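step=encode ok
step=design start
structure_in=
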């Protein structure tokens, strides 16, 4: 589940489309080479990296009452 989310997030098409379609974003980064666009891409990349690392390390919070998987 997380891998699908991360793959979708890392695909930059939604970010580019947001900066092309939303007028306020288009004003601050009309050519997608300005700092606001780059910072957005960096933030999305960092968030997706956090999700991947938290999944691998088992840091993802568990629901109350959920049982942990058996370790071999």
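sequence_out=
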């Amino acid at each position: 589940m997380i891998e699908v989310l991360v793959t979708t997030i890392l695909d930059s098409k939604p970010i580019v489309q947001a900066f092309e379609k939303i007028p306020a974003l288009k004003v601050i980064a009309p050519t997608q080479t300005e700092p606001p666009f780059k910072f957005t891409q960096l933030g999305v990349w960092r968030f997706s990296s956090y999700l991947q690392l938290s999944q691998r390390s088992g840091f993802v919070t568990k629901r109350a009452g959920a049982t942990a998987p058996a370790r071999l």
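step=design ok
step=annotate ok -> The chain has four helices and no strands.
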